[in-house]
Design a protein that fits this description.
Layout (H helix, E strand, L loop, with lengths): L14 H13 L7 H12 L3 E5 L12 E3 L9 H4 L3 H8 L5 E4 H4 L2 H4 L3 H7 L6 E8 L8 E7 L8 H23 L4
Antiparallel strand pairs: 1-2, 1-5, 3-4, 4-5
Helix pairs in contact: 1-2, 1-8
Length: 186
């Protein structure tokens, strides 16, 4: 635990707020422009300080509209690393994606000190802990989609309870984005 942090009660998802987020997920079908608001709402719900929804740059895949709640100014001088879907590739390599993953499980703390990606991208952004939610893989109609949530060292790291809460949202996110991204154009 970072200095100055007090032990926090592990995350427990409030059923009424979970239901409201699920309603907001399905509202995207009629109003996809609400993606930014949904990402921010989920970030607030799990206590993330930053969030990113993106279509990772995977071979043979088309882009999905992006939503950010981040300032990338500190890492713009690293475009090759910035565009590299490091954690998505690691999650896909587990064979458990779509799914929800703690960054700590995908890149242990002892590996971070030697990782150029962590040192040149994550560290300058102040990220100490994260959750990767792989909503869609490249096999999903060539339109992958991930949502990352981040915390700095000033907050306790995300826990398995946060992962479980995101796993509860995953089937709803997959259904809603399946309708949005796979429906024929009219």
């Amino acid at each position: 635990m970072a200095e100055g942090n007090t032990p926090a009660r592990d995350f427990i998802a409030d059923p009424s707020s979970t239901n409201a987020i699920i309603d907001a997920i399905y509202a995207l079908i009629r109003a996809p422009e609400g993606l930014d608001d949904l990402v921010a709402r989920i970030a607030d719900w799990i206590g993330a300080e930053m969030a990113l929804a993106a279509s990772p740059a995977l071979p043979g895949c088309r882009a999905v509209p992006l939503a950010y709640k981040m300032d990338f100014t500190a890492v713009m001088n690293e475009p090759e690393l910035l565009m590299r879907p490091e954690f998505t590739l690691r999650a896909l390599a587990t064979g458990r994606a779509p799914g929800v993953f703690l960054f700590e499980d995908l890149m242990p703390a002892d590996e971070r000190t030697a990782s150029p990606y962590w040192q040149k991208i994550m560290a300058p952004l102040g990220i100490a802990s994260g959750i990767l939610t792989v909503i869609r893989t490249g096999e999903d109609n060539g339109q992958p989609l991930i949502v990352n949530f981040f915390r700095t060292a000033s907050r306790p790291p995300f826990s398995v309870a946060h992962v479980a809460a995101m796993e509860d949202l995953l089937p709803h996110l997959r259904r809603a984005f399946g309708i949005l991204l796979d429906a024929p154009s009219t």
